[in-house]
Design goal:
By secondary structure, this protein is an all-beta fold. It contains no helices and 14 strands. It folds into two domains: about 90 residues; about 80 residues, no CATH class. A hairpin with a 6-residue loop joins β13 and β14. The relative contact order is 0.11.
Length: about 180
């Protein structure tokens, strides 16, 4: 499969060795999937089945978070980078958002705190057992019109970043 025949779809990420990259793309007329390719050249190799995608690689370079649907869909499986069958992620809840990997192979998983529009509860979760440990409650600016999204945490947990949108509007009365 020549890389020229692929249309990149969502995102890409380096594998931990820095020599390979994974990316979501589709062949013309086919469903998207994740591909892996050596950056020094060579043919891309399909990493997932058609319809499965993901680009978030574990820090040890062994696993890829994958799922069906687009970037806002909750990943459901771990796909081995070096080949093998995907395994289900154990313990994810429907209101969870996977925020990334920890340096020790767990996942940062977050959910909105009940009754709060500005606080997000983050836990570390073992994707193989579902065991969870509370990590941090993140509170955004409690200001009308501000919506935070794309929360990113470094694997060592020392840094957290996000972007926000400010949506203001005016209401006019016409007589």
């Amino acid at each position: 499969m020549s890389p020229e025949r692929l249309s990149p779809e969502i995102a890409a990420s380096f594998v931990g060795d820095g020599r390979r990259i994974v990316y979501v793309a589709e062949e013309k007329g086919r469903p998207q999937r994740t591909w892996i390719q050596d950056i020094s050249g060579g043919e891309p190799r399909a990493l997932t089945e058609e319809g499965m995608g993901g680009w978030i690689v574990s820090p040890d370079g062994k696993w890829l978070l994958t799922g069906t649907g687009g970037p806002d869909t909750l990943p459901s499986t771990l796909t081995p980078i070096d080949g093998g069958k995907p395994v289900p992620i154990v313990g994810l809840k429907s209101d969870n958002r996977v925020l990334g990997w920890t340096s020790d192979g767990q996942l940062y998983v977050g959910s909105q705190v009940a009754g709060s529009k500005t606080t997000f509860h983050i836990e570390k979760m073992n994707p193989h057992t579902g065991a969870r440990v509370p990590w941090h409650d993140f509170a955004s600016v409690p200001m009308g019109g501000v919506r935070t999204d794309n929360l990113v945490i470094t694997p060592d947990g020392n840094w957290l970043g996000y972007n926000y949108r400010l949506g203001l509007s005016d209401l006019y009365t016409v007589n």
